[in-house]
Specification:
The complex is a heterodimer of chains A (314) and B (388). With 314 residues, chain A is an alpha/beta fold. Helix content of chain A is 36%, strand content 29%. In chain B, helix 3 links the parallel strand 1 and strand 2. In chain B, helix 2 packs antiparallel against helix 8, helix 2 packs parallel to helix 10 and helix 8 runs parallel beside helix 11.
C-alpha cells in the first residue's frame, strides 16, 4: 500500500473556448518522490495542477490522491493536498503567525495541534523570529517561504508547488529549494511546476516535459536524455601530440567522435562520466599530456529543445 | 465554524486599519454631532421671550406668571421696554411682551387694556411664540370678563369673583392650541439628533459596505479565495464566510452609531427590539451590496473611490440628507427605488410615530427582499468567477 502512488492522474483535458489548454495529461507521483512539470509559460502547467487540486473543472480525465477520487470525495482529496499557489496568497495585514493559524484552521487544525504545527513549520521555513510581524513588512523571499509554509502546515501527503520561486532573489530561491529538497526525505510526494531547468534538475526525481498542453515526455533526467539520444561532450585540454590523442580516444568504446579543437581534443560520447577513467588511461599512451578535463552532460534544456524545437524560455 | 473564523479575521484586519476606523467610528459621530447641534431639536426647545413691566399691577403680575409658566416659552424679565426692544433686535429673544402701566386699573374698570407684542420686522417671531403668548393673554381676558360679569350680577367684589373664575378655569380641561408644522402624527418627523443619527446610520452602513467590498476584491486578487477553495472547505462555506465578514463590519458600523446616538446624543430609537431588527436587516442589505460590488469590480481602489459618492448620492435620494416628506412626489417615488428610503421610513415610524415592529413590517420586508436579491446576485457572480 505504501508504494501506491500518492497522486495518480490520467487523460486530463481542459479547453478554454477554442484553445485546448491541457490535452490528455497523465502521470503518477510516488511517496517521497518529487515530480517536476517542466515547460515554458503557457504550456499548461498551472491548468494541470489546478485540475488536480480541484480548483478548475475538468473537461475530462481522472484524479486520485492518497487513494481518494477527486470526483467522489473531493474533501478527502483536498485534505491530502497542500497547495502552494504561484502568487503569495496570504493576508498582508496579518502577521505570519496569524496567517498560518488562519490557514491551519482552514485545513481543520485546532488547539494544541495547530499551535505545535504552526511553531514547527515556522521553524522549517526560518521565520520564527519574524512570526509576529505583518506579512506586508516581509521581503519577497520571506513572503514566498511563508506561502509554502501555509501549504505544509497540515502535513499533506502531496505538496503541490506552482512555480514557487518566480520572481525571487537568488538567496531566497536557495532557501526555498532547500526546503523542498527536505520534503522528499519526509516521505511527502511533491508536484513541482517550473520553467527553470536548473530547479527541475536539482529537485526532481522525475520530470514531465509539458508543451502546448501535452506531456511530451517523462522520466528521470538520464532517461530523458537517453530517450532523445543526446550525448555527452568531453573537452580535453592537452599539450603534445593532439592528433595522436584524438586517435587514441576515438578507439575507446563509447566515444562516437573525436576532433582536435584549438589547444585540445573534443569528444562526443555516451555516458561520458563512466568513460573518463578509461579515456585518461588511454591518453597516457598517446604522446600528449592532458592538463584538464571538462565533462558537459546534456541538460533538460537540450532535451526540451530536441523534443519541441524551441527553448524553455521561448 | 470556518465562516465564523473568517469573519473574526476580517474584524481583526479592520481593527488594524486606522483609516477605516476613522471612517467607521469617528467620522459618523462627528457628522451627527455637527448636524444635530446646527439644526437643533426645535420641537423640544423653549423659545426665549422678553417681558418688560411698566407697572401693570396685580393683573399684570398674573399675566407675567402665565407667560413664565408656559411650557413653550423661556420668559426673561427686562427692566424697561427699550432694553426689551434692543434684545429683540439683537435676536437675544424671539419676541417681547410689554405690560403697560395702568393695566390692572383699566381691566378692573372694564376699559380695554393693551399688551404690546414686540417683534423684529426683519425676523418675525416663530409661530409657537405667537400662539403661546396669545393663549396666555386670551385666558386672562376670559377670566377677567367672567369675574366682572359675576361681580356685577352677584354683588361680590371683583377680586373674589376673579379668584373664583381662576379656580374654575384651573379645574377644567382647557382648550388647547397645539401647533404642528405639517399637520399631525401621520406626518410627524423626528428632529435634531433623532433625525441625524438614524440618517447617518443608514448613510454610513451603506458607504462602509460599499467600501468594504475592497476586502473581498483584495482576497480575490491575491488568490486567497482560490487558495481557500484548495482546502477541504466547500464553496458555500467560503462564500458564507465572506458574506459574514461583510455583515460583521456593516453591523458593527450600525451598532456604533446606534449606541453612540443613544448614549451620547440621547437619541430615542423608539421600540428597541424593532430598532435592532431594523439595524440588522439594513446591515444585511449592506452585506449584499458589498458582496455584489466585491464580485464585479477589478481592484480595491475602485471600491474605496466609488463607495462614498455613490453612498452619498443614494443617501440623498433616500432621505438621509433631508426628509423625503419635503421633496416632490416624483422624487419620493424615485427615492423608494433604493433601500435607504425604506430604512428611513422605518426609523421615522419608530422614532416619531411610536411604531412597533408590526408597524414597520412592510419596510422590513422590502429591505429583506433587497438583501436577498443582492446576496443571490453576488453569490451567483462569485460562484461563476471562482468555478473556472
Amino acid at each position: 500500500m505504501d508504494n501506491d502512488p500518492v497522486l495518480w492522474c490520467k487523460d486530463l483535458r481542459k479547453r478554454f473556448k477554442e484553445r485546448l489548454a491541457v490535452d490528455g495529461v497523465g502521470f503518477e507521483v510516488a511517496p517521497g518522490e518529487t515530480y517536476g512539470l517542466l515547460g515554458p509559460n503557457g504550456a499548461g502547467k498551472t491548468t494541470t495542477i489546478s485540475m488536480i487540486c480541484g480548483l478548475l473543472r475538468r473537461d475530462g480525465g481522472e484524479v486520485t490522491v492518497a487513494g481518494a477520487s477527486l470526483d467522489r470525495d473531493p474533501g478527502q482529496v483536498k485534505a491530502a493536498i497542500g497547495y502552494v499557489p504561484q502568487d503569495v496568497a496570504l493576508y498582508p495585514d496579518l502577521s505570519g503567525l496569524e496567517n498560518l493559524r488562519f490557514w491551519g484552521r482552514m485545513y481543520g487544525l485546532a488547539g494544541r495541534d495547530l499551535a505545535e504545527r504552526v511553531e514547527a513549520t515556522l521553524e522549517v521555513v526560518g521565520l520564527t523570529e519574524r512570526a509576529g510581524d505583518r506579512v506586508a513588512d516581509y521581503s519577497g523571499g520571506m513572503q514566498r517561504r511563508l506561502n509554502i509554509a501555509a501549504g505544509m502546515l497540515h502535513r499533506p501527503r502531496l505538496l503541490v508547488l506552482d512555480e514557487p520561486t518566480a520572481g525571487v532573489d537568488p538567496q531566497s530561491r536557495n532557501a526555498i529549494l532547500a526546503n523542498v529538497e527536505a520534503l522528499g526525505g519526509e516521505g511527502i510526494a511533491v508536484l513541482y511546476t517550473t520553467h527553470y531547468m536548473e530547479e527541475a534538475e536539482r529537485l526532481c526525481d522525475r520530470v514531465g516535459i509539458i508543451d502546448q498542453g501535452r506531456l511530451v515526455a517523462e522520466g528521470t533526467r538520464r532517461e530523458l536524455v537517453a530517450r532523445v539520444g543526446e550525448r555527452d561532450r568531453i573537452e580535453l585540454a592537452a599539450t603534445g601530440d593532439l592528433a595522436g590523442l584524438a586517435a587514441v580516444a576515438a578507439r575507446v568504446d563509447g566515444v562516437d567522435e573525436a576532433s582536435v579543437v584549438g589547444g585540445g581534443v573534443h569528444l562526443v560520447a555516451r555516458d561520458g562520466r563512466r568513460l573518463l577513467p578509461r579515456l585518461l588511461e588511454a591518453a597516457e599512451h598517446s604522446g600528449a599530456e592532458v592538463t584538464s578535463v571538462e565533462l558537459v552532460e546534456p541538460d533538460l534544456e537540450a532535451v526540451f529543445l530536441h523534443l519541441t524545437g524551441k527553448a524553455l524560455r521561448d | 465554524m470556518k465562516a465564523l473564523m473568517m469573519a473574526g479575521s476580517a474584524l481583526r484586519r479592520l481593527a488594524r486599519d486606522r483609516l477605516a476606523l476613522f471612517f467607521i467610528v469617528l467620522l459618523p459621530v462627528v457628522i451627527i454631532a455637527v448636524i444635530g447641534i446646527t439644526f437643533g431639536d426645535a420641537a423640544s426647545e423653549r423659545l426665549p421671550v422678553g417681558i418688560a413691566d411698566e407697572g401693570a399691577g396685580p393683573l399684570g403680575d398674573q399675566l407675567r406668571a402665565g407667560l413664565v409658566a408656559s411650557p413653550a416659552l423661556d420668559a426673561r424679565a427686562y427692566d424697561d421696554p427699550d432694553a426689551l426692544r434692543k434684545a429683540v433686535r439683537r435676536g437675544v429673544v424671539s419676541a417681547g411682551v410689554v405690560l403697560p402701566a395702568g393695566y390692572d386699573q383699566a381691566l378692573r374698570a372694564g376699559r380695554p387694556a393693551e399688551v404690546t407684542f414686540v417683534v423684529d420686522q426683519t425676523r418675525p417671531a416663530p409661530a409657537p411664540v405667537r400662539t403661546a403668548v396669545s393663549a396666555v393673554v386670551a385666558r386672562q381676558a376670559a377670566e377677567v370678563k367672567a369675574a366682572r360679569f359675576a361681580a356685577e350680577r352677584a354683588g361680590v367684589s371683583f377680586d373674589t369673583a376673579l379668584a373664583r373664575a381662576r379656580a374654575l378655569a384651573d379645574g377644567q380641561e382647557q382648550v388647547r392650541v397645539e401647533a404642528t408644522t405639517i399637520g399631525g402624527r401621520e406626518d410627524a418627523l423626528p428632529t435634531g439628533f433623532n433625525y441625524t443619527a438614524p440618517a447617518n446610520l443608514v448613510l454610513f452602513v451603506f458607504i462602509t459596505s460599499l467600501a468594504g467590498a475592497a476586502g473581498l476584491i483584495e482576497a480575490r486578487r491575491l488568490g486567497v479565495i482560490r487558495r481557500m477553495l484548495a482546502t477541504p472547505t466547500t464553496t458555500a462555506t467560503i462564500l458564507f464566510g465572506e458574506a459574514l465578514s461583510r455583515f460583521a463590519v456593516a453591523l458593527l458600523q450600525g451598532m456604533i452609531i446606534f449606541v453612540v446616538g443613544w448614549l451620547v446624543f440621547g437619541v430615542d430609537w423608539g421600540d428597541p427590539p424593532a430598532a435592532l431588527v431594523l439595524v440588522l436587516t439594513f446591515a444585511l442589505v449592506g452585506t449584499g451590496v458589498g458582496m455584489l460590488l466585491g464580485s464585479v469590480l477589478g481592484n480595491a481602489e475602485q471600491a474605496t473611490s466609488i463607495g462614498p459618492p455613490v453612498g452619498i448620492a443614494l443617501g440623498m435620494l433616500g432621505g438621509c440628507m433631508w426628509p423625503l416628506a419635503i421633496v416632490p412626489e416624483p422624487m419620493r417615488v424615485i427615492g423608494h427605488l433604493f433601500p435607504q428610503a425604506w430604512a428611513m421610513d422605518a426609523f421615522i415610524a419608530l422614532i416619531a410615530k411610536g411604531a412597533t415592529i408590526t408597524g414597520i413590517a412592510l419596510q422590513l420586508a422590502v429591505l429583506a427582499a433587497f438583501a436577498v436579491a443582492l446576496l443571490a446576485l453576488a453569490t451567483w457572480r462569485l460562484r461563476k468567477t471562482l468555478a473556472g
